[in-house]
Amino acid sequence: MRNYIFCFLSALLLSVSWPVAGFSYFIFFAFVPLLFVLKDFEKNYEKAGGQVFWLSFLTFLIFNILTTYWVYYATLFGAIMAFLINSFLMSFVFYLFHKSKNILGIRLGYLSLVIFWVSMEYLHLNWDLSWPWLTLGNCFSESLYLINWYEYTGVLGGSIWVLLTNILFFVFLNNFKIKKNLLVLAIVLFAPILASQVISKKYNETIIATKKIVIVQPNVDPYTDKFSLGYKQQLKDFVDLARTKLDSTTDLLIGPETALLESLWESKIEYSYSLKELEKLQRDFPKLNILLGATTFKRFNSIDDISSTARQIRTQDLWYDVYNSAIFISNLGKIDIYHKVKLVPGAEKIPFPFLLNNISSLSVNLGGVSGSLGSDNYLDVFSFDTLNLLPLICYESIFGDLNKSKDFDLMCIITNDGWWKNTSGYKQHFSYSKLRALEQRKSIIRCANTGQSGVINSRGEVIAFSDWNEKVAIDIEVSTNNIKTFYNKFGDYIGRISSFTSSIFLLLMFVKVKLK
Fold this sequence. Notes:
Blueprint: H1 2-16, H2 32-39, H3 45-68, H4 76-103, H5 106-126, H6 150-153, H7 155-174, H8 179-202, E1 209-217, H9 231-243, E2 252-254, E3 260-265, H10 273-284, E4 289-300, E5 311-313, E6 318-329, E7 335-339, H11 353-356, E8 382-384, E9 387-393, E10 410-415, H12 424-440, E11 444-448, E12 454-456, E13 462-465, E14 472-480, H13 486-490, H14 493-515
Parallel strand pairs: 1-2, 2-4, 3-4, 9-10, 10-11
Antiparallel strand pairs: 1-14, 4-6, 5-6, 6-7, 8-9, 11-12, 12-13
């Protein structure tokens, strides 16, 4: 019974550490009860592996459910799979830690816990079942004063900090009479906080331009209206709402993900009803550039060019791809299209298509087009008035490394968070955008269909936002800069180093077992 109580305590501490209603300081000792549970199995580690995995799995399953329960509103099947897969990966890390601690020794064992966990998080950022929502470093998105150094490390640096403090708290509680343990704990806990304060005071944004932006949150219910109302009426409502804030000095108008519901074939997109209506708006406001989301279609001219996600209209012998796209219409009349790179597993792509492509009927249908969408696997920037604008679509805003080595002056996130209803889901999504602002030291414009739209400056401070279930247009001036952070240059180098080191640890464990 004691072990189950301690597991529940760890799960509870992890959950109450999470944004947006949580208190992030709990994360620094949230793993300690679970570590005490695992300590009981040290002497009989060969037979205790199953118990270690089960107790860890129970802990992380409760944690996953309490923090990401809101996925259920969009898809029950997707929520269950996310809970199970995420809990399995986290538990497997603790299973490896249990083995490593007894094969390689206590010190290397605890080091392996940090290495294995960060490697798991890095995997979760880069494989077909990616779900990095609960990366430990994300928990500080409402406590930015602690983590200004994310511009050097990204969120994985925060994960290392969390794991090290938990291990040192555990070591101190086991040997609290040894003063050195308390000293080391104090240094590891407070040194990053002090560094964050120093970086914050020294940071001074060099503004290269200020742009007047209008953000439109249409607030169309994705369950009842989004894909049932006519696309012409929705576009008219969008334009009418935008006109309430537009003037001759507005530089950029931004609409949310899938703001345009018309079926847009990219080869003739300029002839579509939606684009012609937006061009009319630009004639009234000649300085205006427009960025908004749409579902676009691209035909393949040759059978040799088709992608793995291509679909076929058999009656016309036509192959085409479907994309979740961002469309940029410059004030010079040029139309650019960006295809979403990071697709949502189960909703926008079938994971491991060589195995699961034949069961695409299980994919989650969130309105519009379901099944595997196309992707170009690279990130584009849109240029206007000598500035580069980086677009991210919904789920992509969880991935900091996606922006590695990109030259841009401003970031824009377009999304549709209404699937999660009025829960902590859309609030967490907005909050995570602050982490991207710190990592890149860029202002972020965020436009949601409903949820929270707003602007975050390069310090991660929210300078404008909308409420849930609010139909609104926001006009605001946004500063831009050409800062290129260390993290922007090198991305998730911590994850890559950890993955390499993990392979060495696993090899050492294998060799030691064989030698015995």
